[in-house]
Specification:
By secondary structure, this protein is α/β, with parallel strands linked by helices. It has one domain: SPOUT methyltransferase, trefoil knot domain (Alpha/beta knot). It has seven helices and seven strands. The chain has a seven-stranded parallel beta sheet, with helices on both faces. Helix 2 packs parallel to helix 3 and helix 2 runs parallel beside helix 7.
Length: 179
């Protein structure tokens, strides 16, 4: 095996990314305080052709050096929108026909490995604050709480890690329903 060079990766330019067909998934960040986490979410969103990232509450917006440090330019490729209140973004998405998925440990949550997206549906993945998680008033508006199965002592993942796990899972399942 030989490690590929960057020039061999067939990366899209920002212009190519902007016009590429995106999948039917958007990401909503509910009061994320770490700029590095925000940058990581942009980078993951770029990797899996996420349509848009909604930055809500105290979640910082590009351009910002600390976001850029982990986004590595993905903040220029992935569309984003800022909302003062997460509730406003969630209500808008609901009105646009998105199925709202809070990533949270909650009563009657659906384990991620048991959640299967449906063909033709649009999904909004909501991720919450590093300490407090997704606000209860936002959970109340959601169609599902999806939970990442965990077996260790913490039952807690960093928001950037959670985003990667959930997006990859949904993306891979969406690929199988497209065919």
């Amino acid at each position: 095996m030989r490690k590929l060079k960057n020039s061999e990766l067939n990366r899209k330019s920002v212009a190519e990314f902007k016009v590429a067909e995106k999948n039917s998934l958007v990401v909503v960040l509910d009061n994320i305080r770490s700029l590095n986490n925000i940058g990581s979410v942009f980078r993951t969103s770029d990797a899996f052709l996420i349509k848009k990232v909604f930055l809500c509450g105290i979640t910082a917006c590009p351009p910002h050096n600390e976001i850029r440090k982990t986004a590595l330019g993905a903040d220029e490729a992935v569309d984003w929108e800022n909302f003062e209140k997460t509730e406003s973004a969630v209500r808008q998405l609901k009105a646009e026909g998105f199925i709202l998925l809070a990533t949270e440990q909650a009563e009657n949550s659906t384990m991620l490995n048991h959640f299967f997206p449906k063909k033709g549906e649009k999904y909004a993945l909501i991720l919450g604050n590093e300490v407090k998680g997704v606000q209860q008033k936002i959970i109340d508006l959601c169609d599902f709480c999806i939970e990442i199965p965990q077996e260790g002592t913490k039952h807690s993942l960093n928001i950037a890690v959670s985003t990667g796990v959930v997006i990859w899972d949904l993306y891979s399942k969406m690929l199988t329903i497209k065919t």
